[in-house]
Design a protein that fits this description.
Blueprint lengths: L7 H10 L1 H9 L12 E2 L7 E2 L4 E2 L1 H14 L3 E7 L4 E6 H17 L7 E5 L4 H13 L2 E4 L6 H11 L3 E5 L1 E4 L2 E4 H11 L6 E5 L13 E3 H11 L9 E2 L3 E7 L7 E6 L1 H14 L7 E4 L6 H13 L3 E5 L11 H9 L3 E4 L1 H10 L16 E4 L6 H11 L3 E3 L1 E2 L6 E4 L16 E2 L5 E4 L12 E6 L14 H9 L5 E10 L5 E6 L3 E4 L2 E4 H9 L4 E11 L3 E10 L7 H15 L8 E4 L13 H8 L14 H12 L5
Parallel strand pairs: 4-17, 6-7, 6-8, 8-11, 11-12, 16-17, 16-18, 18-19, 19-20, 31-32
Antiparallel strand pairs: 1-2, 3-13, 4-5, 9-10, 14-15, 21-22, 22-23, 24-25, 25-26, 26-27, 28-29, 30-31
The chain binds coenzyme A and adenosine monophosphate.
Length: about 650
């Protein structure tokens, strides 16, 4: 299909002409207890609020209404766990019963509308039920990814101040069982806020010790509620603008940002995206291979496919090693997925193990139509390999935790536009995307600049940060007045295709996971022997980027540097978690700086990535860069 036969340009123009009408029409696809008075109220909130006056419930739209409409027997969730050796299909009817029962348990444990509930859980159906049960009673969930350590969880507990924490005895990673409960206990010991109760799912792979008076057994409470409970039959009406969840994401410091998501706008944008961006019909099988701890998991494992009446595959496994690089093809074929969504890193992993795509031949992928990639830049060679191997369109699209859905993509549902490798294609309706210079002036086509979005942001995007309006304004709105700063840099070509090339801040993207180098520096700086440090992301064939820490030791320290480097690696794993993938610490005599004391991160990165670089005119001592090059060479890095 060429650009002219896609409906995209007409639809985007329609939104530009009449955003109110466009979103009012999209909102009509949902069930409302009370219809919104308008699509948008520019006077409310910080930059306006979506669907003022609307009263709704996200769980109702994701579950109950499908049962009422006759989808009760259709699979809502297909749980496929090669790690646990379990497969399970959960119908919409069963999902409704389970959310009713768990909602009742949450109520019994003191959770009410507006209360926060933290989930620290592996990829099990109970986690999805828990998110929906919170939504059902108007409680605000906050899911913390299982690869984060106790200290990170504690920070989130102190910020969200949950009434209840839901967790499990363990997660399962290839070759090891990760005991979550000791991490939870440690996090609660570290946090100033203490939750009233914890509900713990005992998995057969590990038995968690319970704290009397605080911890409750998930299965016992569920079974009791199933028989005796005052089930929460009705979904609690909430305002469209009420929060559905808080999802913490990396900022430039160690203190994560609590991205807030509302109920109404979120549902409207996600529902629209399933049909028009992803080209999916209700009843079809959709698979997002991510984790519920990330925004991609929130939006496209849980909420969007369920709101759209699809079957969503919940996969507890990896692209390789569970058991091999054919795992993705097996899941697509076995469950009849018509599309999947994952991060490019997963395809790099598969390509590395099975470059000829031989394992694909064992599976019938005849129903499979489209592969969607996001979470990090899709490198053209991986994208081309996926296209040649799968022989279906491979669609890169760009978004952020903050937006909750795609900013720029190729809307397959409106008629696919030509694919340009390296570009995540065009702005979705709702987003007026500009590329600007430091003075906030549009740069010419194909020139690099900061990518910003003209306010207001569309539905589903964060209205603010959890109890941190000033931080929201300062982080996102202050630098380019009237615009949202994405903190991504890139360019737009003559056809309006957007090329996202990298972050403008200290955030790095490791295997599609967003991490703060500032947070890692805070941990390293706390090591007794470290005087100064810098962490930056360096190129990695599999994970895209990996963090690399440069350490300057305090004078007088005479222990072997390798010993200290090992301790630093262990410290980041202990304090931030294995997800940081921090495995490279390099001791150097000093850090290269400008005369005004700024660390020359960009130049160090170029040296580490083996790219050409020029000596910065402002450097304090040019020899410092040679020293960095030599230290990297000692570790076999730097090209
Ligand atoms: N609980 C506990 N530990 C976890 C975890 C979890 N939920 N998830 C990951 N970890 C651990 C891993 O076991 C690994 O530990 P290790 O250092 O002992 O090996 C570490 O955190 C780093 O994880 P990761 O960066 O994911 O590396 P990996 O080698 O385990 O897997 C990929 C690499 C590419 C296979 C994997 O990252 C992947 O499948 N990514 C694509 C999908 C995705 O998750 N995208 C994210 C957003 S769309
Ligand atoms: P997260 O909030 O974890 O989703 O990470 C968002 C960041 O990941 C963005 O700001 C980008 O830097 C990067 N990112 C996500 N998707 C893409 C993409 N398709 N192309 C380039 N970068 C991307």
């Amino acid at each position: 299909m060429d650009a002219r036969s896609s409906r995209y340009h007409d639809v985007y123009a329609r939104w530009q002409r009449d955003p109110e009408g466009f979103w009012t029409e999209a909102a009509a696809e949902l069930d409302w207890f009370e219809k919104p008075k308008a699509a948008f109220d520019p006077k409310a909130g910080i930059y306006g609020r979506w669907f003022p006056g609307g009263v709704c419930n996200t769980c109702f739209n994701a579950v109950d209404r499908h049962v009422a409409a006759g989808r009760g027997e259709q699979a809502a969730i297909v749980y496929d766990s090669p790690l646990a050796g379990v497969k399970q299909t959960i119908s919409y009817h069963r999902l409704m019963t389970e959310t009713q029962v768990l909602a009742s348990v949450l109520r019994d444990l003191g959770v009410g509308k507006g209360d926060r509930v933290i989930l620290y859980m592996p990829m099990v159906p109970e986690a999805v039920v828990a998110m929906l049960a919170c939504a059902r009673i108007g409680a605000i969930h906050s899911v913390v990814f299982g690869g984060f350590a106790a200290r990170e969880l504690a920070t989130r507990i102190d910020d969200a101040k949950p009434t209840l924490i839901l967790s499990a005895s363990c997660g399962i990673e290839p070759g090891r069982v990760v005991a979550y409960k000791p991490l939870l206990d440690e996090a609660i010991a570290l946090s100033a806020h203490k939750p009233g109760a914890c509900l713990i799912l005992q998995r057969p792979q590990a038995e968690a010790a319970m704290v009397a008076g605080r911890d409750h057994d998930w299965a016992t409470m569920r079974d009791h509620a199933l028989v005796h409970a005052r089930w929460v039959y009705d979904c609690v009406p909430v305002a469209a603008t009420d929060p559905l969840y808080i999802l913490y994401t990396s900022g430039t410091t160690g203190r994560p940002k609590g991205v807030l998501r509302d109920n109404g706008g979120h549902m409207v944008a996600l529902k629209w995206s399933m049909k028009y961006l992803y080209g999916i019909e209700p009843g079809e099988v959709w698979w997002t291979a991510s984790d519920i701890g990330w925004v991609v998991g929130h939006s496209y494992i849980v909420y969007a496919p369920l709101i759209h009446g699809c079957t969503s595959v919940l996969y507890e496994g990896k692209p390789v090693g569970t058991p091999d690089a054919g795992a993705f093809w097996r899941v697509i074929a076995e469950h009849g997925a018509v599309a999947m969504f994952t991060a490019p890193t997963a395809f790099r992993a598969i390509k590395k193990e099975d470059p000829q795509g031989k394992l694909l031949k064992q599976h019938d992928l005849s129903k499979f139509r489209t592969l969607f990639l996001a979470g990090e830049r899709a490198d053209p060679p991986t994208l081309a390999w996926a296209e040649q191997t799968l022989k279906v369109p491979v669609i890169d699209h760009w978004w952020q935790t903050e937006t909750g859905w795609c900013i720029a993509g190729n809307p397959v549902g409106l008629g696919k536009l030509p694919v340009k490798h390296g570009s995540s294609a065009v702005a979705m309706p709702g987003y007026d995307v500009r590329v600007v210079d430091e003075a906030c002036k549009d740069v010419p086509a194909s020139a690099m600049g900061s990518i910003v979005v003209k306010l207001p942001l569309p539905p589903a995007c964060l209205p603010t940060l959890w109890q941190a309006d000033a931080r929201f304004e300062e982080s996102y709105l202050a630098e380019f007045p009237g615009y949202y700063k994405t903190a991504d840099a890139g360019f737009k070509d003559d056809d309006g295709y957007i090329f996202v090339m990298g972050r403008t801040d200290d955030i790095i993207n490791v295997a599609g996971h967003r991490l703060s180098t500032g947070g890692m520096e805070e941990v390293l700086a706390a090591h007794q022997d470290v005087a100064e440090c810098a962490v930056l992301g360096i190129k990695d064939e599999l994970k895209g980027e990996v963090p690399c820490g440069f350490l300057v030791l305090k004078s007088g320290v005479n222990r072997p540097p390798t010993e200290i480097e090992k301790e630093c690696v262990a410290l980041v794993r202990e304090k931030i978690g294995p997800v940081a993938a921090f495995k490279l610490a390099i001791t150097v005599g000093r850090l290269p700086k400008t005369r005004s004391g700024k660390i020359l991160r960009g130049t160090i990165k170029k040296i580490a990535d083996g790219e050409s670089w020029t000596m910065p005119a402002t450097i304090e001592d040019p020899k410092a860069l040679d020293e960095i090059g030599a230290a990297l060479k000692d570790k076999g890095l730097g090209g």
